[in-house]
Write a structure and sequence with these properties.
alpha+beta; single chain
């Protein structure tokens, strides 16, 4: 069983478990058109959202909040997955990550610190082998965040993603392996 990853510092952020007092702020970020325009589901029903975040941990979902000086400024999504492959494939070695940042905090590097912290959790305490993330190809800011965090674009899907306002549009998939993360961390330590 992996070690629970939160709390974890990433730049100026503390990534931590969500607590009941955080839920209304989290819901306001999740349903704000400025932050959810590029999400697959643009609106969450409040009761379903609350129930999802307050349910007992299941050992696969490690969602978190991004706390900046005591204020929730973003949400992190981290779900451990079973990879696709041949029979006998080890279970729970991969994850998919995502993030949302409050619109008033966008453009300040918060998303990059959040994505980097999610990767640190995946490859550190959770001990995973591979992490993926996706974004719409038209959402250049999110693509830049994933690249700054060290992820590699692995797929450009042509009209593979549905957007509520734009219809079928292109999507990107990013990936990173544990040994690539380790090499990047060693390079950063040597340079710093």
């Amino acid at each position: 069983m992996p070690t629970h990853p939160w709390p974890l510092e990433s730049g100026p952020l503390v990534l931590r478990d969500a607590a009941e007092p955080d839920i209304e702020r989290m819901l306001s970020i999740r349903n704000d058109p400025g932050s959810n325009h590029w999400t697959l589901v643009t609106r969450m029903e409040p009761e379903a959202f609350r129930a999802g975040w307050l349910r007992a941990p299941d050992g696969r979902d490690y969602g978190c909040v991004a706390d900046l000086d005591g204020e929730v400024v973003g949400l992190g999504f981290l779900e451990i997955l079973d990879g696709l492959g041949q029979p006998g494939l080890p279970k729970g070695t991969e994850a998919e990550i995502g993030y949302l940042v409050a619109p008033e905090h966008s453009g300040r590097g918060i998303a990059t610190h959040l994505a980097t912290g999610l990767l640190a959790a995946c490859f550190g305490p959770l001990g995973l082998r591979r992490v993926t993330a996706g974004c719409y190809a038209d959402h250049g800011a999110s693509a830049r965040v994933l690249e700054k965090a060290g992820m590699r674009r692995e797929q450009h899907g042509v009209e593979d993603s549905w957007h509520d306002e734009l219809g079928w549009i292109d999507g990107y998939t990013y990936g990173l392996l544990a040994h690539e993360w380790a090499a990047r961390q060693q390079g950063a330590a040597a340079a710093g």
